[in-house]
Amino acid sequence: MEKVNGSSLQAQLTLWKKSRVKRFDVEEILDLVDDWKNAGNGWLAICPAHDDNRHSLSIGEGTEQKLLLHCHAGCKFLDIISALRKQRDGKRGCK
Ligand SMILES: [Zn+2]
């Protein structure tokens, strides 16, 4: 039996570190999403990775300034990040 799960999350985290996601901070993400609102000690925003109309994306700051992103509709972390990147690149492109 090859090992299955467990390692995939680790692989995602490694990929995440390699891709310098840390360069996104909360302020920048809030600037990129279509809409957001405060939610306790974090924020709820329109998820850029799917056709969202009800603030499915939770954003928070963890310890040591790690960014917490979670889409309640089930988007993967890296999908959200790449969608944010596209938003960011798009903004740079026009204007
Ligand atoms: Zn989503």
Quick recap of the structure?
The chain is α+β, with helices and mostly antiparallel strands and 95 residues long. The protein has three helices and four strands.
Number of strands: 4
H/E topology pattern: HHEEEEH
Shape: globular
Rg over C-alpha atoms, rounded to the nearest angstrom = 14 Å
Give helix % range: 25-40%
Give the strand line-up of the largest sheet.
1-2-3-4
Biggest sheet architecture = 4 strands, antiparallel
Mean pLDDT: 83
Distance between the termini: 53 Å
- Low-pLDDT parts are none
Oligomerization state: single chain
Q: If helices are DSSP runs of H or I spanning 4 or more residues, what is the number of helices?
A: 3
Structurally, how many domains make up the residues?
1
Approximately what portion of the residues adopt beta-strand conformation?
15-25%
Structural class: alpha+beta
Bound molecules: zinc ion
Topology:
Elements: H1 7-18, H2 26-32, E1 36-39, E2 42-45, E3 57-61, E4 67-71, H3 77-93
Antiparallel strand pairs: 1-2, 2-3, 3-4
Describe the protein's architecture and organization.
The structure is a single chain. The protein has 95 residues and is of the alpha+beta class. The protein has one domain (7-93). Helices cover 38% and strands 19% of the residues. The chain is built from 3 helices and 4 strands. The chain has helices at residues 7-18, 26-32, 77-93, and strands at residues 36-39, 42-45, 57-61, 67-71. A 4-stranded antiparallel beta sheet has the order 1-2-3-4, with no helix packed on it. Strand 3 and strand 4 (67-71) form a beta hairpin. The longest helix has 17 residues, at 77-93. The relative contact order is 0.16. The structure holds zinc ion (ZN). Zinc ion binds next to loops.
